[in-house]
């Protein structure tokens, strides 16, 4: 009984601390924007280095959607609707969600481990000693970099999955769906709202994943076990948060349908 | 990492991402749904829309000239009130044109076909298309067919 209380209490305290932490990070954002050099470095390590995994998984997911969609649709003689299927599934759901999951695994865990190791090796305390605010110098640039990079990565993922190689390669080049009807079906079915909702979704995921990653790193126990636990927590918590938030956002955005 | 190479890569990444968003907006989403400036709206009342959905295309002679913006129930007549968004380049459609709800293929998607009339006056923003023909509902046709059969067999 007492243990349950303690767990709940720890959870609530962690939540409160995380919110306070988010607040102080947001406050530090203008100061961090004054140092474009640091920000650039972080966008490179968070965004540019995640580009390859995003492009490749986008291509493969598009190809799988093309194959599966074709096999199902051809039974109804509706294989010309393949474009609609691939485009809507990618833009509305898979693009933002899969990119965010990959991002949490590729960039979020790296952020946590880096900040956690800084904590464990007392680099953060050393900064505080020198009157350098670690939130301004270390946390805020990483947070901004994550928030900026993920929506762009999600857009690149969608283009890869629908166009260049994914659905287009399998559907049009391999299975012989007419290229013209593939694209007109897509243009007829996808509205600007769909794209916009996708961008909103991936922006929300970006804030949440970056927040969890920097929070877990900053509050990691300063030893090797603590860093490993924080990294694991980042991946588990952000994956669950992405999936749960995706449901909530979808319920809000598409309730009329 | 050299500062120049770093900036180059980050710039490349950003332009790639922005280009991707542009491609999604202009190549994947239909262009005319984004720009409300170069289109005008007319209203059409139908007895039965039979599966017409917002976003369906509006055509003249089979050529797409616009799309259905939304469909609501008219509060007084209880007819379906569809507002059609037509491209500004088609601003010379006669006022007495008629609108029909048609089906692509046997069980395909519903769309609206406009048939131009002979009036000198043209449709303007906010106008109403008077002559409309509702969707063909399969159940009604079958019902009529059965009723005809029944009356035929009674005569004999």
- Give the overall shape of chain A: elongated
* Share of helical residues of chain A: over 70%
The fraction of residues assigned to DSSP E strands of chain A is under 5%
- Largest sheet, strands/sense/barrel of chain B: 8 strands, mixed
- Strands of chain B, count: 8
Any idea what the shape of chain B is? elongated
Helix content of chain B: 25-40%
Distance between the termini of chain A: 45 Å
Summed up, the helix count of chain B is: 2
Set out the fold topology.
The complex is a heterodimer of chains A (257) and B (156).
Chain A: H1 2-33, H2 36-46, H3 51-74, H4 82-120, H5 123-129, H6 134-162, H7 166-174, H8 179-189, H9 192-218, H10 224-253
Helix pairs in contact in A: 1-6, 2-6, 3-4, 3-6, 3-7, 4-6, 4-8, 4-9, 4-10, 6-9, 9-10
Chain B: H1 3-28, E1 39-46, E2 57-60, E3 63-73, E4 80-87, E5 98-103, E6 110-115, E7 128-129, E8 131-133, H2 138-155
Parallel strand pairs in B: 1-7, 2-6, 5-8
Antiparallel strand pairs in B: 1-4, 2-3, 3-4, 5-6
What key phrases describe this protein's structure?
heterodimer, A: 257 residues, mainly alpha, B: 156 residues, alpha/beta, eight-stranded mixed sheet, 8 strands, 28% helix, elongated
Can you describe what's shown?
The complex is a heterodimer of chains A (257) and B (156). Chain A is mainly α and 257 residues long. Chain A has ten helices and no strands. In chain A, helix 3 runs parallel beside helix 6, helix 3 packs across helix 7 and helix 4 crosses helix 8. Chain A is elongated. The model of chain A has no long low-confidence stretch (mean pLDDT 86). Chain B has 156 residues and is of the alpha/beta class. Chain B contains two helices and eight strands. Chain B starts with a helix and ends with a helix. The model of chain B has no long low-confidence stretch (mean pLDDT 82). Chains A and B meet through helix 2, helix 6, helix 8 and helix 9 of A and helix 1 of B.
């Amino acid at each position: 009984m007492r243990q349950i209380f303690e767990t709940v209490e720890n959870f609530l305290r962690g939540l409160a601390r995380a919110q306070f932490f988010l607040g102080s990070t947001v406050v530090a954002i203008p100061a961090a924007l004054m140092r474009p050099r640091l920000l650039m470095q972080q966008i490179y390590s968070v965004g540019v280095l995640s580009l390859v995994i995003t492009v490749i998984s986008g291509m493969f997911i598009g190809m799988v959607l093309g194959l599966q969609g074709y096999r199902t649709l051809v039974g109804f003689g509706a294989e010309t609707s393949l474009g609609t299927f691939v485009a809507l599934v990618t833009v509305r759901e898979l693009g933002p969600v899969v990119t965010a999951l990959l991002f949490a695994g590729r960039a979020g865990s790296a952020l946590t481990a880096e900040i956690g190791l800084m904590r464990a090796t007392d680099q953060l305390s050393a900064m505080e000693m020198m009157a350098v605010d670690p939130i301004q110098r270390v946390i805020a640039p990483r947070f901004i970099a994550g928030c900026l990079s993920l929506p762009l990565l999600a857009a690149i993922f969608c283009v890869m999955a629908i166009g260049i190689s994914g659905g287009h390669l399998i559907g049009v080049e391999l299975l012989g769906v007419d290229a013209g009807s593939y694209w007109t079906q897509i243009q007829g079915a996808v509205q600007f709202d769909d794209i916009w909702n996708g961008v909103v979704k991936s922006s929300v995921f970006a804030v949440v994943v970056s927040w969890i990653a920097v929070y877990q790193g900053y509050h990691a126990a300063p030893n090797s076990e603590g860093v490993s636990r924080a990294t694991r927590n980042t991946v588990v918590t952000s994956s669950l948060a992405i999936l749960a938030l995706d449901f909530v956002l979808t319920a809000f955005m598409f309730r009329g349908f | 990492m050299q500062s120049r190479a770093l900036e180059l890569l980050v710039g490349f990444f950003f332009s790639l991402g922005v280009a991707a968003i542009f491609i999604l907006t202009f190549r994947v989403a239909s262009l005319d749904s984004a720009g409300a400036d170069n289109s005008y709206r007319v209203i059409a009342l139908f007895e039965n829309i039979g599966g017409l959905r917002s976003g369906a295309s509006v055509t003249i002679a089979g050529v797409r000239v616009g799309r259905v913006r939304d469909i609501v129930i008219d509060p007084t007549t209880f007819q379906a009130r569809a507002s059609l968004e037509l491209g500004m380049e088609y601003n010379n459609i006669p006022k007495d044109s008629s609108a029909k709800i048609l089906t692509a293929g046997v069980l395909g998607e519903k769309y609206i076909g406009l048939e131009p009339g002979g009036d000198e006056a043209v449709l303007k923003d906010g106008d109403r298309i008077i002559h409309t023909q509702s969707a063909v509902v399969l159940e009604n046709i079958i019902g009529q067919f059965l009723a005809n059969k029944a009356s035929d067999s009674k005569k004999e």
